[in-house]
Amino acid sequence: MATTEQVIGTWILIALYSSATLYFVIKGALNIKSMKDYAVGSISFSPYFVGMSLAAAMTSAATFVINPGLIARYGISGVLSFGIFFPIASMISLVVLTKSFRKYGESVSAVSLASWIGKRFNSKGYSLFIAFLSGLMITFIVLILVALTKVFASALNTNEVYTLAAIVIFVFGYMMFGGANSMVYTNTIQAGIMIVVAVILLSSGFSHFENGVVGFFQKLKEIDPVLIQATNEGSPLFRDFWEIALAQIIIGIAVVCQPHIITKSLLLKKESDVNKFLVTSVVVEILFFAVVFVGLYARIEFPDLTVDGVAMNTDNIIPAYVIQVFSIGWVAVLIGLFVVMGLISAGLSTLEGLIQSVSTSITNDIVNPLFGKFVKNEKSYMRINRIAILVLAVVGFLMSRQQLLFPKLSVAILAQNGVYAYFSIIFVPIVLGIFGENVGLKAPLWASITAFVTHFTVYYGFPVLLNSDIMSFGYFNKYFTGTVHNPAIAASAAIVLSAIVGTALYFKEKHTKSKQQILNL
Questions:
Q1: How many CB atoms lie within 10 A of CB 330?
Q2: CB neighbours of 428 closer than 8 A, spacing ≥ 6?
Q3: Rounded to two decimals, what is the model's pTM?
Q4: At 165, which CATH number?
């Protein structure tokens, strides 16, 4: 439990942090006149600010709280997966995809991912399909709400459900008004705090290296030899090279195709700012992704993963580590409070982006095409957007409460299942839209359908078939046994099959058009 000094200090930080946030929300809200202003901003932002904003949004509480908890439980295999293969793939993909996506997004005045896809392939129905699927991103919102709740409840010694309710009311409340204008400012401040906190966390375990790297690994080996192995057969996520490397590379390439990530480039007003934006993002992200290594420090601190004899849930490990390591001496307490603020920043930075992007898609890509004739003006759309945020708040609270009261391995499994499904569905269409020439609707649409069917069939259908003795998958049986399944297996399969179908249809259509042109000569 947190000490009295830690609790009082945390309350003071909350007061200061909330005041600063509300200041920027009010400042940003004064410049919002339309839904486009809410979605992509009406202010010309520094590319360095937008780059830091993206880095903060892309890493989030998953990187600072949830993933290190999984690494504390499963060891080096998790570091390889979440700290090396996934980050490298995602950052390369970010650089390759962002420039072209932004260029086309600017030319058609796209304000969301669904509108970009609809305009790129000239299909309102396809845009509507993608907009409805953006509802899958609510699972990521749940992950962040759970992570924030764990951090706040640990630092304040408060009831988790009541803490969750307070977080939802505050964050969703101010996001009804701030939008992109305030979000870039708050994300930049959050990223700045996260940079300092990342350094503090990474240095917090330096004492474990008194006998060098070999001595550090020896400590882990004494706890459990599997913690220093490249694979962990006993885990549901890091059992072999496919789960640790190949699946994570595929996922990392596609992860950029989330509404709160790839649309961030639309905030830039000048093409010349893109390189500055990308360099800033990548440099800061490298530091942030390194934080997952702190999970190993936490495992040395809690060898049996218990506190006062009580087993910890995976999502509680990092909050408990911070409270314990920074609890002795007033200097340590102050540093610990700053770290708590950094963990909070990691969650809020992405949560704000998700609320903004998902609510924008609901308003712009679902309500507008279906009920636009009944909406009188821009003010009405702004009111509808606030209602959409309210609905997200209610659904997010109920789902998060379920995760808090009835936890499984980690809320990461729920979030990965929803988020991975979403970007596996839109990855190939975005790639075709960026790099393809004269792409028709058939290739991207069937790529999306293939990914949708594959992901949910593999994730939910294959375990049923295996457990019913209807079908055996040989070597792959291990992926579908037990109560926890790895969403990366389903998503990577979905992305690969989607790419095959989409590419085949694209080249077939291109060949048919070329043949027709020759016949017309």
A1: 9
A2: 444, 447, 448, 451, 495, 498, 499, 502, 503
A3: 0.87
A4: 1.20.1730.10
